[in-house]
Amino acid sequence: MIVRSIREALVLLGLAALFGFSYSLITQRGLFASKAVPPGGPTGQIEMIDLAAARRAFEQGTAVFIDSRHAFEFRQGHIPHALSIPLNEFDQVFPHLTGIPATQSIIVYCDGTECNSSMDVGVRLMQAGYHNVRVFFGGWQEWSQQGLPSEAVKP
Amino acid sequence: MKSLLSNRLIVLLVRVFLGGVFVIASLDKIVDPAAFAVSILNYKVVSVTPALVIATVLPWAELLCGLGLLLGLYPRGSSLLAASMLAVFTVLMGSALLRGLDISCGCFSQDPSVGRIGGARIAEDAGLFILSIFSYYAAEDTSLLSWTKRRPTEHAA
Predict the structure, then answer these.
(1) How far apart are CA B64 and CA B69, in angstroms?
(2) Would you kindly state where each structural domain of chain B is located, as residue ranges?
(3) Between chains, do A8 and B113 touch, taking CB under 8 Å as contact?
(4) Is the pTM of this model over 0.80?
(5) Radius of gyration, alpha carbons of chain A
(6) pLDDT 10s digits, B71-106
């Protein structure tokens, strides 16, 4: 009975692989995902997250933070390990970002609730093929007001 | 226990429930395998490429397994596959909890804000594991299909 059951389970797994790879090839999702993602991402919009979610991602190290403010603001203080990609320098800086996989969770932030460069950079990252981009709505102001970890670039 | 295993109604209910859970669990993952790959990466056990391969194949294994249990196609193979997957999920969640990870389990929804791992999730998977073992040892020809086919004969008899 066990040998037949194992054989059946393996047949099911084989079929799952066949269906999964075919589906991925046809729909360009998952393993064979295309780099061409519609503006705003596959769902048409970027998820906004609050301080608690951003903090959790930071503490668990599950996301790469991207700071979309001007470079001089970034130098004065930013979320530790964040990468600086100012919106007006996106085309120059982005090509140098290597080693970040398309499925990597990315959180973009700018100064606070009244700026929108984080959203613009988020959209451009999704257009570049990153699927899991979120925007930390409260941004640097909310983060720093809570006294959360920060770092600055020494002159 | 033997009478339970041969009780066709109980076996049918277990397989319909288990099959339904697997089919439902597969849908969100099939629609968005990239988000499921992120859920897998959050467990910090595999790197990106294996996570993408798993995210591409596993949802379909869940779907076929669920359909197998519901329709009676390879019921024992489906039960064995279900039990194997549930055993891995349970161990992974337990290991993530022990490592202090506070992550979404990625079980039914890929929304990172829902379904966080915890004791309840582990108990849920352990319960499903027991049901799949039950289904494995139960009468082979009991499923929704065989039930609907058999009824008229039984009535005639």
Answers:
(1) 9
(2) 2-142
(3) no
(4) no
(5) 20
(6) 988 999 999 999 999 999 999 999 988 987 777 788
